[in-house]
Amino acid sequence: xxxxxxxxxxxxxxxxxxxxxxxxxxxxxxxxxxxxxxxxxxxxxxxxxxxxxxxxxxxxxxxxxxxxxxxxxxxxxxxxxxxxxxxxxxxxxxxxxxxxxxxxxxxxxxxxxxxxxxxxxxxxxxxxxxxxxxxxxxxxxxxxxxxxxxxxxxxxxxxxxxxxxxxxxxxxxxxxxxxxxxxxxxxxxxxxxxxxxxxxxxxxxxxxxxxxxxxxxxxxxxxxxxxxxxxxxxxxxxxxxxxxxxxxxxxxxxxxxxxxxxxxxxxxxxxxxxxxxxxxxxxxxxxxxxxxxxxxxxxxxxxxxxxxxxxxxxxxxxxxxxxxxxxxxxxxxxxxxxxxxxxxxxxxxxxxxxxxxxxxxxxxxxxxxxxxxxxxxxxxxxxxxxxxxxxxxxxxxxxxxxxxxxxxxxxxxxxxxxxxxxxxxxxxxxxxxxxxxxxxxxxxxxxxxxxxxx
Length: 454
Hints:
The protein is of the alpha/beta class. Helices cover about 50% and strands about 15% of the residues. The protein has helices at about 15-20, 25, 40-55, 70-75, 85-100, 110-135, 150-160, 170-180, 215-225, 255-270, 280, 285-290, 295-320, 325, 330-345, 390-415, 415-425, 430-445, and strands at about 1-5, 30-35, 60-65, 80, 140-145, 165, 190-195, 200-210, 210, 275, 350-355, 370-375, 380-385. Strands 3-2-1-4-5-6 form a six-stranded parallel beta sheet, with helices on both faces. Strands 7, 8, 9 and 10 form a four-stranded antiparallel beta sheet that branches. Strands 11-12-13 form a three-stranded antiparallel beta sheet. α17 packs across α18. The longest helix is centred in the N-terminal third of the chain and has 25 residues, at about 110-135.
């Protein structure tokens, strides 16, 4: 059993590897391979990965670190993809260019998400082609690479028969916060229903041990005027400030407004719990107003998670001391490892996946890539059918869906007009002229990453 991690130099790699190793018996994994185009970065991350496998867990799992495609994919059973094309330097551009023009600056939403998608489409197709060439015929690609909605649409269009499942851990992160807010220790007993597009959806029910807890959650959010646990909110003076080492990231900087925004949305639309990313679409004006166009979340991450990781690696190399908080990100790794377990062992466990609609949501297009619950077995997702969704949610989803479809078509065809239409249609953009200004600046910033647009 071989698992290849594409994007081996990611700050999340050590956490994912730990999650795999903790499921060694269920996965019967013999070898983990790290594959990245940036050898220097990956080799640094591999230091702590090797520590996790050999020292902390004494797993006996072989580690291979490579920049060679054939070595990475040869006979692989699972490929976990977590690419960040352009790394944080381009994420910073994705966020700051729209803000200059009065638009939301976010890595997967709005213009930033469209730009990121344009960089990621063809590298993801390359991953599929390489897996087809060298991996086992029964391979599965489990894709975390963002923006997953655009990536999944491109895969549907260009490689419809690929053995790929696109997933996102943000709904799980939200459920983690819900559990903490309601003092639920055993999150595995929470079952929820959800529909939407990736980073664009709604929880319609949340149950704990068979009890509907949406009412309790709604009361909590209305009372606290934020969706964050009391434990995170104790130091109110430290809320909404630049993150510092050791502080909970969800209460700091731009994250604070994300969780605060959940209250603001639910105060008006109380029947569902929105995905946090809906803030950027439903409160565009407000999120631009409290954003700093010179210091965005990309900067926050580079100054915290990125810095902590590589400082931690240097410290380990110098002293042999590892700070576990520096290296591990629990639910992110657990989610993808548990999905691999479900596929391998045919468990029929329930997951959220991004999949072609095919009537799952009756009043959405057949070929829409939607995010819905499914049971996962050896043959892939068995999607759980949904009822017709309300007009409000359907209208928002159709606007976002068509923006993303136009972007994928424009990227494949090299069509400036279609990409401009995608930017113009996106709900975070106030006008065609603003869309054009943002797009033209992004074309310059993305030279070498985007296909030529004519």
